[in-house]
Amino acid sequence: MPKKVELEGGGRAPKGHFVVYVGNEMKRFVVPTSYLKNPIFQKLLDKAAEEFGFDYRNGIVLPCDESTFNRVTAFLAKHDS
Fold it and tell me: Which Gene Ontology BP annotations are present (predicted)?
Protein backbone atom coordinates (compact mmCIF):
# COMPACT_ATOMS: atom_id res chain seq x y z
CA MET A 1 0.00 0.00 0.00
CA PRO A 2 1.51 3.37 -0.95
CA LYS A 3 2.35 5.87 1.73
CA LYS A 4 0.26 9.03 1.80
CA VAL A 5 1.39 12.58 2.13
CA GLU A 6 -0.80 14.20 4.72
CA LEU A 7 -1.71 17.76 5.41
CA GLU A 8 -1.72 18.25 9.16
CA GLY A 9 -2.57 21.11 11.46
CA GLY A 10 0.48 21.39 13.67
CA GLY A 11 2.63 19.72 16.23
CA ARG A 12 5.31 17.15 15.69
CA ALA A 13 5.37 14.78 12.75
CA PRO A 14 4.79 11.13 13.61
CA LYS A 15 7.78 8.81 13.85
CA GLY A 16 9.24 8.09 10.41
CA HIS A 17 7.91 11.33 8.91
CA PHE A 18 8.92 14.97 8.62
CA VAL A 19 7.23 18.26 7.84
CA VAL A 20 7.65 20.41 4.73
CA TYR A 21 5.98 23.67 3.76
CA VAL A 22 4.89 24.21 0.17
CA GLY A 23 3.72 27.07 -2.01
CA ASN A 24 3.03 30.73 -1.42
CA GLU A 25 0.57 29.85 1.33
CA MET A 26 3.16 27.67 3.10
CA LYS A 27 0.85 24.68 3.41
CA ARG A 28 2.15 22.11 5.85
CA PHE A 29 2.61 18.53 4.68
CA VAL A 30 3.87 15.49 6.55
CA VAL A 31 5.88 13.12 4.38
CA PRO A 32 7.61 9.80 5.06
CA THR A 33 11.36 9.94 5.70
CA SER A 34 11.78 7.27 3.00
CA TYR A 35 11.34 10.09 0.45
CA LEU A 36 14.72 11.48 1.54
CA LYS A 37 16.55 8.76 -0.39
CA ASN A 38 14.65 9.42 -3.62
CA PRO A 39 16.60 11.45 -6.23
CA ILE A 40 13.48 13.39 -7.27
CA PHE A 41 12.80 14.52 -3.72
CA GLN A 42 16.50 15.23 -3.21
CA LYS A 43 16.34 17.67 -6.15
CA LEU A 44 13.52 19.55 -4.38
CA LEU A 45 15.62 19.69 -1.21
CA ASP A 46 18.63 20.94 -3.19
CA LYS A 47 16.48 23.72 -4.68
CA ALA A 48 15.24 24.59 -1.18
CA ALA A 49 18.83 24.82 0.08
CA GLU A 50 19.80 27.05 -2.87
CA GLU A 51 16.85 29.36 -2.32
CA PHE A 52 16.59 29.48 1.48
CA GLY A 53 19.93 28.17 2.77
CA PHE A 54 20.50 25.55 5.42
CA ASP A 55 19.78 27.67 8.48
CA TYR A 56 16.28 28.70 7.53
CA ARG A 57 14.50 28.67 10.91
CA ASN A 58 10.93 28.16 9.70
CA GLY A 59 11.33 24.54 8.69
CA ILE A 60 11.85 22.95 5.29
CA VAL A 61 10.24 25.12 2.63
CA LEU A 62 10.09 23.57 -0.83
CA PRO A 63 10.26 26.08 -3.69
CA CYS A 64 7.43 24.69 -5.79
CA ASP A 65 3.71 25.17 -6.01
CA GLU A 66 1.27 22.85 -4.31
CA SER A 67 0.11 21.13 -7.51
CA THR A 68 3.70 20.28 -8.49
CA PHE A 69 4.38 18.97 -4.99
CA ASN A 70 1.21 16.84 -5.13
CA ARG A 71 2.24 15.35 -8.49
CA VAL A 72 5.74 14.57 -7.24
CA THR A 73 4.53 12.97 -4.02
CA ALA A 74 1.83 10.97 -5.83
CA PHE A 75 4.54 9.57 -8.07
CA LEU A 76 6.78 8.83 -5.07
CA ALA A 77 3.94 7.15 -3.17
CA LYS A 78 3.42 4.75 -6.09
CA HIS A 79 7.13 3.99 -6.49
CA ASP A 80 8.32 4.13 -2.89
CA SER A 81 9.42 0.76 -1.61
Answer: response to auxin
